Amino acid sequence: MSIEYKVNVPINVVQFQKLLEASTLGERRPVDDLPCLQGMLDNSNLIVTAWQGAELIAIARSMTDFHYGCYLSDLAVDKKYQRKGIGKQLLASTQKQLGPKCKLILIAAPAAKDYYEKVGFSWNERCWVLNPLGDSGVVK
């Protein structure tokens, strides 16, 4: 199996949608909202992808300042290709793009906790989420 890893190559929204659906991440992403998915791609400044020929099989999608913090918002590997080290390679390729002091930060689904511990992440309980503004336009 020859996997090719690429940094910041364009992918289209349908490729992204299909990959999310083929991975476990599709359950927690707006796969039926193509404008939202397009916005996710357009506003990411670091995307590392894995390809099997012309097929997109995995993605690490991040937003970063490249020096202090990198928020890894998606790490998705097609179920057919999981447990082959592709996720680890995506993480390593992402880190290679970052400065030496830049931390990789993510919010993981509870089922992924063991995976992230295994690949070297440390758990941090200090995460806060502010949901979008309500219809009234004010923070609840």
Automatic annotation (TrEMBL):
GO MF annotation: an example: acyltransferase activity, transferring groups other than amino-acyl groups
Xref: InterPro entries: Acetyltransferase_Butenolide, Acyl_CoA_acyltransferase, GNAT_dom
Domain of life from the UniProt record: Bacteria
Ranges of residues in domain N-acetyltransferase: 3-140
Gene3D superfamilies: 3.40.630.30
CDD domains for this protein: NAT_SF
Name of the protein: N-acetyltransferase
Upper taxonomic lineage: Bacteria, Pseudomonadati, Pseudomonadota, Gammaproteobacteria, Cellvibrionales
